[in-house]
Amino acid sequence: MHEFLAQLVNGVSLGGIYALIAIGYTMVYGIVELINFAHGDIYTLGSFIALAVFGALGVSGELHGAALAVDGGLALIAAAVSCGVIGMLIERIAYRRLRNAPRLAPLITAIGMSFILENVMQAWKGSAPLPFPQIFANPVAHMGLLDVSAEQAFVVVLAIVAMVALQLFVSRTRAGRAMRAVAQDRQAASLMGIDVDATIAITFLIAGLLAGTAGFVSGVYYQSTWFLNGFSAGLKAFTAAVLGGIGNLAGAMLGGFLIGIIESFATWKLGGQWSNVTVFAILILVLVLRPSGLLGERVPEKV
Amino acid sequence: MIYLYALAAIAAIVIAERLRGARSKQTVLAVLAALLLIAPLVVRNDAAINALGDIGIYVVLALGLNVTVGFAGLLDLGYAAFFAIGAYTYAMLASPQFGIHLPLWILLFVAAAIASFFGLVLGAPTLRLRGDYLAIVTLGFGQIVPQVFQNLTKYTGGPNGISALDFPSFFGRSFGQNATPYYYVILAALACALLFANNLRDSRLGRAWMAIREDELAARHMGINTTAVKLAAFAIGAAFAGVGGVLFAAKLSIVSPEQFGFQVSILIVSMLVLGGMGNVGGVAAGAIVLALVNTTLLPQINGLVNGALHANLDLTNYNFFIYGAILVSLMLFRPEGLLPNRERKAELHAAA
Question: Out of A108, A235, A303, whose CB is closest to B331?
């Protein structure tokens, strides 16, 4: 029972990271029908930028009180904002021209961007895994049978805050409404006076912000990062988005937490070497059996 | 010397693509074939012949993926899985691993059959999926297969793989570690693959593939059995990879899971994109260029740079920057590839 709960807590915090990444996939797919393959690498880039900021600030270990808030906050904001901007730039350079091309063309471009980002990160910090400072002093909170570390609590709280903020943005603001309109019918939206290019750019910006946040969080959580992390993390987050129903924000969050939990139980019961196989098998099964996911609606293919 | 050979091969392909008459095309290709046949006599360098053999295997793989992606328009991002299946077939049935020692000649066919079976296994449930979902499912499959080979340590040697594979033999004479016999086997396989791919394209099946690539719904209404035709594309494409895998394993005499990662699948997709998806000659040329960069050019530049600058930089680690740049820039500026196929070009330039 104790082990079960520990794995559950693990899974939920892991799921928080996947959920943050998955939202980016789902938003971008919802609006331009592109599997943004480079998204996972933008997430890794977030952890690299946070690491660089910590390096510049001279942070190498535990932070307390105001230092935790200021230094941690700076690293988080730097990671999120630069990833947002980079996501937007990639859309401008690599995807916009292909918006009306056959579907596979932008997908192939996205794979190319993913490789380019990976190599840039490798050139920047080398091909070995990098240590990330452990910024939280680690008191473990005991709640009955439940043990929660500071990192785990941080991951879950930050993920939930980001999701609530996003949900409010999409449902309450003008830009959020424009986003939903463009996702539904790009042409009609543009006839209604919505700037489609700007709206799509904002979508990529937000996806990047969340990926950068997830990158920072993952660094804090795992205390390490690696230039190739984004590939499998991205694929798992995409699985989460598909599992929840692609294009659906709540679905991406749900899927993220589910995949996190499934992965940590697979690691526990089957061994770490089978966790990836399990997640990818779920990806295939969901796509084959229920491509609309748990919360998505069935959409007939447009002819 | 390798560069001369690669250049000659590419020049021959380009000329053959440009020529109209069937007779003159055949002459150009016959000259190329003769040049390739005498290569071991001219080059007289085992390492170079070895590299030419590697390039040949890549061309076989690219021709196979071209059946699935180029002819039928089904983007397969997990092609390395079939390559792995072919290689492990040889490794398990021609090595001390289980004490089974079947000859190369039989295993070429066995591996082709096993790989196409897995092509069907992958293809059957995924046929209903739209293009990009299909791509992701194949990617997932491509991740799972090497991981399974890695995890089933009892049968596959785990992360270390299987080594000391049998040397193939021909009428009782072992190939040993001499590159030349492998080169000729690869050359023969390549010639068969080329002929097969060319004939496939012009067959009834090939025309059905092009029809579903351009408009699946319309193709179905023309009476094409889209399910069977797509399955055939997966199975036949996979068979090429099975053959390529056997040749690869026999030549290297060792297989291990990390040789068949996502990078390999994307390398082959890049060959197709560079050369021109759907066009047999273009794909072959694209494969030669990238395989040459991969096997010979980058390591040599690496040596030069590090020798001159006394740097300790491993450029071969950055080869995927090149593939990434190729994928992005070609898709943006010339999606039909450098040696395009006419129909494919028209499709890619038509507004969706």
Answer: A108
